[in-house]
Design goal:
Elements: E1 7-10, H1 14-25, E2 30-33, H2 37-46, E3 62-65, H3 68-74, E4 77-80, H4 84-94, E5 103-106, E6 111-112, E7 117-118, H5 119-126, E8 131-136, H6 141-145, E9 150-155, H7 159-169, E10 174-179, H8 182-204, H9 209-229, H10 240-251, H11 256-265, H12 270-277, H13 282-297, H14 302-312, H15 317-325
Parallel strand pairs: 1-2, 1-4, 2-3, 4-5, 5-8, 9-10
Antiparallel strand pairs: 6-7, 8-9
Helix pairs in contact: 4-5, 8-9, 8-10, 8-11, 8-13, 9-10, 11-12, 13-14, 14-15
Bound molecules: 1,4-dihydronicotinamide adenine dinucleotide (NAI) and 1,3-dihydroxyacetonephosphate.
Residues 109, 138-140, 193, 196, 245, 248-249, 255-257 line the site of 1,3-dihydroxyacetonephosphate.
Function: Catalyzes the reduction of the glycolytic intermediate dihydroxyacetone phosphate (DHAP) to sn-glycerol 3-phosphate (G3P), the key precursor for phospholipid synthesis.
Domain Glycerol-3-phosphate dehydrogenase NAD-dependent N-terminal: 6-159
Binding site for substrate: 109, 256-257
Length: 341
């Protein structure tokens, strides 16, 4: 592809804005599509996306737009940064506007309820004429806007997608590593949100450092067990989109999922915690779906089950913790020593 690629980013929230800013910083003109005309106008006038990043000036190469047909028809590379709940309806509505040969990359870290579909699966199914990829990794949008040194993963079976994404996004503060396990990379990004909620909850309870390490390590064991049962490569979970993203979201109060967990740990009812956040916390929806899927497939997921009990049953946090800590002792790395049934 030439250097004159037309680039579109769909979704004017935190991550869409952050990705657009990285692209623009590399000298690429970017159309940042959002559905809200007033928000687009406000960004055009102020040069900032104050709702998400107050006071931070956007590159003049980021152009807020609202005309979706023109945006899609003219783009060569499209990054989708919409919440998972909006993903399928959006693709269904705009499908006729996509062109053969376009690169379409999902940055969404969620799962669709119907059929337990990942976003890349929705894209591949609905837009077979395009080249699909997934971008995921330890990428807090707020830190990317501050140009903190950051790395991410572009996953796609298609070498052109991987190479083009590395070329467009890579710069002095943003490194893009490649993977071909698109399913594993995407599942890693979705699953870690659940464990970020648990970690936020644990932080509110002022747990010790050993406890934090145990939660993160056992989260990794549980999410990789689940993902491998569904067809992911276990080694993906050693990379940025696995342990990297798990680490950042489980340790940072910038993570919205962590913040929801923290609020619940302090006694705020879940609904209120989500409402007060005012942004997407994918982990709450993902928790429900993963719990159902794990039950259906008979995959043990004690942390998922425990969080679900805390959020939706009468059990106290202390009762759930006691149940987890006194359960039968088991294998550390089950890919080496198989887990006892
Ligand atoms: N914020 C972050 O640090 C990162 C977020 N992500 C993922 O990116 C996805 C988007 O998250 P954020 O941008 O952070 O959320 P956000 O809550 O900051 O923004 C979401 C945006 O999508 C818009 N939106 C919602 N429904 C829509 C629809 N039907 N049509 C068009 N626009 C719609 C909202 O108006 C809002 O501007 C999530 O799946 C998240 O997990 C991935 C990496 C990092
Ligand atoms: O995925 C993220 C960082 O990699 C952002 O996490 P939150 O959605 O919890 O803010």
């Amino acid at each position: 592809m030439s250097d004159n690629n037309k680039i579109a980013v769909l979704g004017g929230g935190s991550f869409g804005t952050a990705i657009a800013q990285v692209l623009a910083g590399n000298g690429h003109a970017v159309k940042l599509w959002m559905r809200d005309a007033a928000q687009a106008e406000a960004i055009r006038e102020s040069g900032r996306n104050d709702r998400y990043f107050p006071g931070l000036t956007l590159s003049p190469l980021v152009e807020p737009v609202t005309a979706i047909q023109a945006t899609l028809e003219t783009a060569d590379v499209i990054f989708v940064a919409l919440p998972s709940k909006a993903f399928r309806p959006f693709v269904a509505d705009t499908r006729p506007f996509f062109r053969p040969g376009q690169i379409v990359i999902s940055t969404t870290k969620g799962i669709e309820r119907e059929g337990f579909r990942l976003m890349s699966e929705i894209l591949v199914e609905a837009l077979p004429q395009t080249h699909v990829g997934v971008l995921s990794g330890p990428n807090l949008a707020g830190e990317m806007m501050q140009k903190e040194l950051t790395a991410t993963v572009i996953a796609s079976p298609d070498a052109r997608v991987r190479e083009e994404t590395q070329r467009l996004l890579g710069c002095g503060y943003f490194r893009v590593y490649a993977n071909i396990d698109m399913y594993g990379v995407e599942l890693g990004g979705a699953l870690k949100n659940i464990y970020a909620v648990i970690s936020g909850l644990a932080a509110a309870l002022q747990v010790g450092e050993n406890t934090k390490a145990m939660i993160i390590s056992r989260s990794l064991a549980e999410m990789s067990r689940f993902a491998v049962a569904l067809g992911a490569n276990p080694l993906t979970f050693l990379g940025l989109a696995g342990v990297g993203d798990l680490f950042v979201t489980c340790t940072s109060s910038m993570s919205r999922n962590f913040r929801v967990g923290y609020a619940v740990g302090q006694g705020t009812p879940l609904e209120q915690a989500v409402a007060e956040l005012g942004q997407v916390a994918e982990g709450i929806n993902t928790l429900e779906l993963v719990r159902e899927k794990a039950q259906e497939l008979g995959i043990p997921m004690p942390l998922v089950r425990g969080l679900h009990e805390i959020l939706y049953s009468d059990m106290t946090i202390q009762q759930v913790i006691k149940g987890l800590m006194t359960a039968a002792q088991n294998s550390d790395v089950e890919f080496i020593l198989p887990r006892q049934a």
